[in-house]
Structures are given as C-alpha cells and as structure tokens.
Amino acid sequence: MSVQFNKMKLSLILSAALAAGVISATAATQPVVVNAATNADPETAMKALFGDPVIVKGKGFEIKQSELDQVLTGAKANAAAQGQTLPPAFTAAILNQLITIDCLLQKATPADHTAGATEADLQFTNLVEHFGSQEAFERQLKAVGITAAELRAKATQEATAKAALKRELNIKVTDAEAKAFYDKHTADFEQPEMAHVRHILLMTVDPSTRPPTPLSTNTIAAKRKQIDDLLKQIKDGADFAALATKYSEDPGSAKKGGELPEFPRGQMVPEFEATAFSLTNNQVSDVITTQYGYHIIKMIDKTPAKEYGFNDTLPKINKTVAEICRNEVEADKIKELAPDYVKKLRGELNVQIVDPTLKALDENARAQGADSAPDTGMAEPAK
C-alpha cells in the first residue's frame, strides 16, 4: 500500500474501479483522442436481447444484471488500457462488493447519507480537477461507458455505505495513531518535480483506429512542413497559445491554448517527458517526434519536489496529510473488522445470489480463496 501523493488512490469503493479505467487511459499517453467507434453500449444491446434479470435478492434490495455489467465494463476498459485481462474471479469479487454496499445502505442513517454525499462531492471534484475540465472528464467517462451523473450517484451510494460501516463498527482513529502512520510513511508524502507546459500537436497517426495507424507518407511530410512553419512563427514572436488553439490536433488541450495539467515524470511518453523537463520557464522546444506525431512544447513553469509535513494540505487532493493518514489507519481497521460484521449482516438480510451462473462462479472463487476485488477493506466472499 502506498499513499504517495502522485499516486493517491481514491477512497471510494467501486467508483475507484470505474475511475481507474478513465485515469489509466490518459496517464501514460496524453494527449488522448477518444475513438467514437469503440463507444458502443454492450449493456444496452444485451438488455434488448435478454432483458435485465435480478441476480441477487436481499431484504430491502435487489441487484440487476445491468448494475454488475456497468461496473465490469469500466474494469475491463481499465485492464485493456494496460494490456491485461480480468480473471474470472474478478466478477465474483465485484458482485460481492455490490452486495456489501446494498446491505450497508439498509443500515444507513440520515447522517450517513449526508456524510456520504459530502465525501462523494469531494472525490468528484478531485476527479474533474485531475482532467482539467468537466468536458475532458466526461469525454473520458464516455470511453468507459458511464455518464458523470451515473458515476456521481454510484459514488454517493458507496461513500454512504462506507459511512454506515464506520459507524456500525465504531471505527475511531486517534491523533497518535495517525501520526505514527505518518512517521512510518514520510517518504510516501513526497511530491515529485512537476512540469506545467503548453504544446502543439500535429498527428501523424489516425487516432480513430486501434491501434492508431500511420497516415500516408505525403500527409506526414506535409505535417512536418507545417510544424516547422509553426515553430518559425513562434520564434518570430507569434503567440504560442493562439497557434495551439488554431492548429493543435490534441482536442483536450487545444481549446486551452495547448495547456496541459501539471504532470510528474512517468506519465508522458518518454520523448515528450524528457524534452518537457529539460526546458526552463517560457522556453520553447524544437520540434520533437513521438508515437502520436510532431510536438512543440513551451514550458509554463516547474514545481520542485517537496516533502509534505503531517499538518500540510495536499494540493488538488483538498485534504491534509493528517486526514490521509487517518483514512489509511481507518481502512486497516475496517479491513480487520468488516468481514465478520458483513457476514452477519448478509445473514440478517437473507442475501441470495439467484443467478445460477454467478452463484457457481462465486462458489468456485470462494473455494479457491480468490480475492480479485479492489482493496477497499469492504469486500468479503459470499457466504
């Protein structure tokens, strides 16, 4: 477990899995162009053919196939973006998290709902800031098949369930426990050097294909001539942001004058990163070539590396280091105490997996001791 600032995990449950698909799609390969051809909705097609059957029943709630499918779609997109596939046990693990959330919602008080809505709003705000704009955020959500409204609703449910669990388990974290955690993990609260740049991109590949295919030789040659001309204009005093807005083929940044969100090393393709971090403030690069095409980069500013103290506030996370430490200690306590409580609660609510295939998959996962769900401290095998 790492709480390093630039890799800070979301504290929500399933929305973290959904958002991971969105974030991973941009983390290593910005700029990104979403391929509309890949955005067909398989859930809608399946529902049209087979309906939307109930797969789990419990006192006060039921879970439908579409609810499971939606989460799995985001998780599969995340895995595919990293060149991976999900193991069969992952489906059972996600199903059990859905069950756990619905069980806990039956216990939620008005205060739990208020706390959940507040926490979900904060997490949602942080995600929007991560992508730089609401528009960019929603574009990436579309790529994994969920709307912003759907994600917000799920996040609120999940945060409410977590608030109910903390109250039911009477989870308390003292200042001393939080400080002890910090003392053991001070290196994890170091922000690396960050670069803040503008860029102009002329693409030499067709982003609508998967994987992107090179454009024709003549087109690439024309793009090279154009980028060289843009660089000459910039060196002659032309406004970089204005040229980026007019000519850059990165839709995520062009509307903002080519400006990208701040990034540390390890998030961009190597050629882009190496050039960006070599620049000084307001310096403009020569033309560089990446797998996407030709770039010109202008440094806005660089933020030096920094170690955050226990009482410091983490920028963009909107929480103090102390709060993060308390959350981590809290998560460890939940992970220890939750399984027995959730097992008892599932019995009280008479939870049954009624879909035969999913029931068999769940029983097989339990027999093998599989645990493929995101590590939230709230997942537990079906009983």
Number of domains: 2
Give the CATH topology of the largest domain.
Triger factor/SurA peptide-binding fold
| Helix and strand composition category | alpha+beta
The unreliable regions are: 1-40, 371-383
- At the first level of CATH, what is the class of the largest domain? Mainly Alpha
CATH superfamily of the largest domain: Porin chaperone SurA, peptide-binding domain
What is the arithmetic mean of pLDDT?
82
Taken from the alpha-carbon principal axes, the silhouette is globular
Percentage of residues in helical conformation: 40-55%
Let me know the largest β-sheet.
Answer: 4 strands, antiparallel
Beta-sheet strand percentage? 5-15%
Tally of alpha and pi helices: 14
Question: Span between N and C termini?
Answer: 27 Å
Strand adjacency order, main sheet: 7-4-9-8
Architecture (CATH level 2) name of the largest domain: Orthogonal Bundle
Could you outline the blueprint of secondary structure elements for this entry?
Layout: H1 14-27, H2 42-50, E1 54-58, E2 61-64, H3 65-81, H4 89-105, H5 110-131, H6 134-143, H7 148-169, H8 175-184, E3 190-191, E4 194-203, E5 205-206, E6 213-214, H9 217-235, H10 240-247, H11 251-254, E7 263-264, H12 270-278, E8 288-289, E9 293-303, E10 306-307, E11 313-314, E12 319-320, H13 321-348, E13 352-353, H14 356-367
Helix pairs in contact: 1-3, 1-6, 3-4, 4-7, 4-14, 5-7, 8-13
Structural commentary:
This protein is of the alpha+beta class and 383 residues long. It has two domains: 11-186 and 311-367, Porin chaperone SurA, peptide-binding domain (Triger factor/SurA peptide-binding fold, Orthogonal Bundle), CATH 1.10.4030; 193-304, Chitinase A, domain 3 (Roll). 52% of the residues lie in helices and 13% in strands. The chain has 14 helices and 13 strands. The chain has helices at 14-27, 42-50, 65-81, 89-105, 110-131, 134-143, 148-169, 175-184, 217-235, 240-247, 251-254, 270-278, 321-348, 356-367; strands at 54-58, 61-64, 190-191, 194-203, 205-206, 213-214, 263-264, 288-289, 293-303, 306-307, 313-314, 319-320, 352-353. A four-stranded antiparallel beta sheet has the order 7-4-9-8, with helices on both faces. It has a three-stranded antiparallel beta sheet with strand order 2-1-13. α1 (14-27) packs across α6 (134-143). The protein is globular. The two termini are 27 Å apart. 34% of the residues are buried. Residues 1-40 and 371-383 have low confidence and may be disordered.
